[in-house]
Amino acid sequence: xxxxxxxxxxxxxxxxxxxxxxxxxxxxxxxxxxxxxxxxxxxxxxxxxxxxxxxxxxxxxxxxxxxxxxxxxxxxxxxxxxxxxxxxxxxxxxxxxxxxxxxxxxxxxxxxxxxxxxxx
Length: 120
Description:
By secondary structure, the chain is mainly beta. Helices cover about 10% and strands about 35% of the residues. The strands form 2 sheets. Strands 3-6-1-2-5-4 form a 6-stranded antiparallel β-sheet.
């Protein structure tokens, strides 16, 4: 499962905000511990950024995430409005937060699948 999010604001300290938080990524650290071993710095992150694995999602609120840009990269490499793809820790919890799934091929949507109705 891959999730596509947008960079929405730059912060001081080489950080930026994404329009994704606990509702998109889940606050369950689940696979997070294992994913840390594939990160270059072995630090915890709330998800794995496919385009730039060295980025670290430091914190998440309900709808926002704070991403740290490492010293080896520049904040200007991640302009506001650009999109990043994130692999979440816990796909089941993440999937439950969305009413449908966009099926992609070559970065283009080719289908949409509705999820099961929720009764909670």
